[in-house]
Structure formats: structure tokens, C-alpha cells
């Protein structure tokens, strides 16, 4: 799997969080370029994914050994405190983590969306202030080796249901309604000729960009009703 450094900006204007191939998560002072004292921690594998909760007090980090760690983050000092560890699946790289403070009007629990090379997209509920995760449900996709990523739809709070979007090794972009008990798959976009690795919406959800392993980027426009 291609290795890349992961960077995450916190709500603080002078700090950012970086994960690397040496299994470390560091809080960096962006003014000086130096690591913040007390702002480093080690994972069990190479860091592939990072995500904050909305307030910026909880940081989750995923590694290539299949673990997700939660950290308490002190925004005033930059200190990281390791809180919880979840083994999603031993040896399955965690390639994407996306946090949402609440999924929809019907499901107001904080949630985490995770890709982990299991041929599934995983949705977890955040059950406490230390970032403990409880599996809520999973959705079938094709992902066994590529660093596929997923996202929550940005406007999900303004409509019934709640959608997530993910890439897949079947060369498609998949949409799932996380609140549907049955037939959660609501859309599939076809047009890529290689595994779809990443997806991203613009702010009003009128455009979706998807990229694949061959380097192609497709911008999809939402149909006007």
C-alpha cells in the first residue's frame, strides 16, 4: 500500500497534527516548524488516517496494522493523551477516518466512518468523551488492498436519512443511507477505469469529485430537480 504522511489541522490556528511512517503522531507548531512538547505519541503501525471531532478535543488515528487510537487533545498546550484503542481487524490497514458530530435528525450520536481493507465500509458510534467506538453497522464495498477513502455527505442534517459516500476497488463511487434498515445502497456512479480511491464534495453538495488509482479525477454535478 502506498505510504503517505497524514496531516490534520486543529481548531487552534498555530498547530497541526501529523502522522508518519515511523508510527508517530506529532503536534507541530506551524509558526516554528517544531514539535510541541507533550504532543507526540506512538501507534502500533504506520499512520495512514487522522480525524478530529467537531470541537477539536478528540483525535482519532488509524494505522496499517488495523488499529484506531483516540487521543485527548489540549487545544491550549497541544498536549496529546492516548485514551482508547480499537482493533478494527488485525493486519487490515485503516485507510480512512471521517468524524461527524451527529449523523442526522434521527441519529444524533457522534459517529466515525472507517475504511479498513475489509471489503466493508464501517460506521461506528462514539459512546463517551474518550472516543470509545461501538460498531453501528457496515456496508458492502470492494476494498482489499487500495487506500480507499470515504466521507459523510455535508448536508445530511437537512433531509430525511443520512448519506455517506465511498470509493471502491470495483471502479465505482457508492452512496449509502446509514439510517435505512434495508437496501442501504442508494446510488452508484460508474465512469472510472481503475479503483476509486477518494471522494470529496464541495460545500453545498452540488459537485462531487472522485479520483482513481490511474490518476483520473471526475467531477460529478448533482441533478437539479
UniProtKB/TrEMBL annotation:
Record-linked InterPro entries: WD40/YVTN_repeat-like_dom_sf, WD40_repeat_dom_sf, WD40_rpt, WD_repeat-ST_regulator
Keywords, in A-Z order: Repeat, WD repeat
Pfam families cross-referenced by the UniProt entry: WD40
Coiled coil ranges: none
WD repeat residue numbers: 189-225
Domain of life: Eukaryota
Annotated protein name in UniProt: WD repeat domain 13
Upper lineage: Eukaryota, Metazoa, Chordata, Craniata, Vertebrata
Gene: WDR13
Amino acid at each position: 500500500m502506498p505510504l503517505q504522511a497524514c496531516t490534520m489541522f486543529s481548531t487552534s490556528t498555530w498547530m497541526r497534527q501529523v502522522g508518519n511512517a515511523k508510527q508517530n503522531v506529532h503536534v507541530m507548531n506551524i509558526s516554528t516548524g517544531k514539535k510541541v512538547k507533550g504532543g507526540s505519541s506512538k501507534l502500533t503501525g504506520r499512520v495512514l488516517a487522522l480525524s478530529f471531532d467537531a470541537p477539536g478535543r478528540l483525535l482519532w488515528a488509524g494505522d496499517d496494522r488495523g488499529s484506531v487510537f483516540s487521543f485527548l487533545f489540549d487545544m491550549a498546550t497541544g498536549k496529546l493523551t492516548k485514551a482508547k484503542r480499537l482493533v478494527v481487524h488485525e493486519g487490515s490497514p485503516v485507510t480512512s477516518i471521517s468524524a461527524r458530530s451527529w449523523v442526522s435528525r434521527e441519529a444524533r450520536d457522534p459517529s466515525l466512518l472507517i475504511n479498513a481493507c475489509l471489503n466493508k465500509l464501517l460506521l461506528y458510534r462514539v459512546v463517551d468523551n474518550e472516543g470509545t467506538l461501538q460498531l453501528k453497522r457496515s456496508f458492502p464495498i470492494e476494498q482489499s488492498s487500495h487506500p480507499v477513502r470515504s466521507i459523510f455527505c455535508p448536508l445530511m442534517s437537512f433531509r430525511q436519512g443520512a448519506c455517506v459516500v465511498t470509493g471502491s476497488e470495483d471502479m465505482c463511487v457508492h452512496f449509502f443511507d446509514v439510517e435505512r434498515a434495508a437496501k442501504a445502497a442508494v446510488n452508484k456512479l460508474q465512469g472510472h477505469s481503475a479503483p476509486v480511491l477518494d471522494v470529496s464534495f464541495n460545500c453545498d453538495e452540488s459537485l462531487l469529485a472522485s479520483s482513481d488509482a490511474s490518476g483520473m479525477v471526475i467531477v460529478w454535478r448533482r441533478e437539479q430537480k
